[in-house]
Amino acid sequence: MTVLEIVAFLLGLANVTLVVLRSIWNYIFGLAMVALYAIIFLDARLYSDALLQVFFFVVQIYGWWNWSRVRAQAGEVTIGLLTNRTRLRWAIGCLIAAALWGFGMHRFTNAALPWADATLAVMSIAAQTLQSRRTVESWWLWIAVDIGSLGLYAAKGLWLTMLLYAIFLGLAIWGLLDWQRVARRTVAA
Question: Cβ distance 105 to 47 under 8 Å?
């Protein structure tokens, strides 16, 4: 455990808690957190996770813009649901991307856990993208990512990061329940 990991941990707690609360201020904490985790994951040879942080940085900026725009129009950050067909497309896309990314990490790098790391990275990309688009389904993906990440980070001895993902799991469950409630309220209105 390093000072860098402790700071990233605290930023992560603030970020995800604010996402659950649909606060646009989550993005300030998120940008700082992913920058620090890029360094932490490079050091741990979790290359997929390190690359993922670069993606997260960019999509955090997109999410901030998108949430700001929607909040300005609706007065709050609104939530939506995907159609079954769209859910299927995302699932197939994730499977294909995880297989390709995992193969690349296995074949061309000395990644510590290439297949697990790649699968969790792809699912995280999908989850973050869907969250930036304000969909309830993002939380289902985050729950799966958080469960898988517990084992990944334990295997690499990133105990504080593992604890963070255990807390993220609880926050993701809270986020799912809250965002489902908001989405039902929106559909009923």
Answer: yes
Residue 152 near residue 119 (C-beta atoms within 8 A): no
In this predicted model, what pLDDT tens digit does every residue of 7-27 receive, in sequence order?
A: 999 999 999 999 999 899 999
Kindly report the pTM of this predicted structure. 0.84
* d(C-alpha 167, C-alpha 143), whole Å: 11
**8: alpha, beta or left? (left if phi > 0; alpha if psi -120 to 50):** alpha
The Cα-based distances of 152 to 4, 12, 45, 119, 156 in angstroms read: 19, 18, 12, 11, 7
Q: How many helices (H) and strands (E) does the chain have?
A: 7, 0
Helix (H, G, I), strand (E, B) or coil at 136: coil
3-class DSSP state of 110: coil
**Which position has the token pair 């209105």?**
189
